[in-house]
């Protein structure tokens, strides 16, 4: 159970504000362990080349999911539908992204199905759309997508590529009330090993464990997390306006902060679509997708997810580099600022953080 707590914390950090509320997934995983026993965590190398690995999780607006809590049967039914559709048996479950409920729900599903969890994911963080995976970067079509709602209605999407699958699956999710559960992205162990981001669950657990140690030892929590992520403190601020709404199966919005402490007098903005995607001071970018933007409650050390942002919150904002696969020209094309119609060109967070004000 302690490991689940650590993973939950690490998932909230790497979620970059999105991925859905990890508390829901944590409770579901803990209940599954109580009923079915411990979860096995395996490397992709532990599977035979012909075996089938599958991801499960939540699709839709995290804001909706706060009130539309899954009952636990959706992912089981979706996995069974996938096995029937493919005519194959699932050998392992993996998270499609590192973030929130989408890191914890796969653990609960695997435990209930008596399957191991694969220590890999397709993002290394959380992104708002499902074609934004390292599998898609490598041209692997993992479009088969099954969506299930709380009434156990299911819809199967089998598109020509993952980008088209995202569009259709998102439209179905809106019709299902704005949030649903999926089983998707069937891959082989070889594809997981070559194209996935390995060790994600282990890293989330390490983040959670190390931060717990830092808290017990009264170490500086921000410095500890910055060190773990090779990150940079972007600013400290108080939320003076938060505009967010659910649209097309996403939580979209902008948060505006006034600077505090060493940043007094500054005005900062964080833009998000499920995940935090752009942080800037006035018109100067501080961190740009695909790099991670993490809002941390400095007193508690707890990450603040986008759907939990509210007026008056005091946060420290951290920028951290994304996995190197996202910093390629193809990675920037798929999930960089141009895709989200932001006017800024991508520059690594370490370059932006070290540049004199107004130099970039």
Task: Give keywords.
S-Me-THD_C_sf, globular, CV3147-like fold, S-Me-THD_N, alpha+beta, CV3147-like, 27% strand, S-Me-THD_N_sf, DUF917 domain-containing protein, 360 residues, single chain, 12 helices, five-stranded mixed β-sheet
Secondary-structure content class? alpha+beta
CATH architecture of the largest domain: 3-Layer(aba) Sandwich
CATH topology of the largest domain: CV3147-like fold
What number of domains? 2
Shape verdict = globular
Largest beta sheet: what is the strand line-up? 14-13-12-11-10-16-15
Helix fraction by DSSP (H/I, runs of at least 4): 25-40%
| Strand residue content | 25-35%
| Termini gap | 46 Å
CATH class of the largest domain: Alpha Beta
What gyration radius follows from the Cα positions, in whole Å? 19 Å
What is the H/E string?
HHEEHHEHEEHEEHEHEHHEEEEEEEHH
Number of helices: 12
Name the poorly predicted regions: none
Domain S-Me-THD N-terminal: 3-158
Organism: Hamiltonella defensa subsp. Acyrthosiphon pisum (strain 5AT)
Domain S-Me-THD-like C-terminal: 161-349
Protein name: DUF917 domain-containing protein
Written overview of the protein:
This protein is of the alpha+beta class and 360 residues long. The protein has 2 domains: 2-200, CV3147-like domain (CV3147-like fold, 3-Layer(aba) Sandwich), CATH 3.40.1610; 219-354, CV3147-like (Beta Barrel). The chain is 35% helix and 27% strand. It contains 12 helices and 16 strands. The chain has helices at residues 2-14, 22-36, 62-67, 73-86, 101-113, 134-137, 162-175, 189-195, 200-216, 221-229, 329-335, 349-354; strands at residues 41-42, 52-60, 90-94, 117-118, 120-121, 145-148, 154-157, 179-187, 197-198, 232-247, 250-259, 267-273, 275-281, 284-288, 292-296, 314-320. It starts with a helix and ends in a 6-residue tail after the last helix.
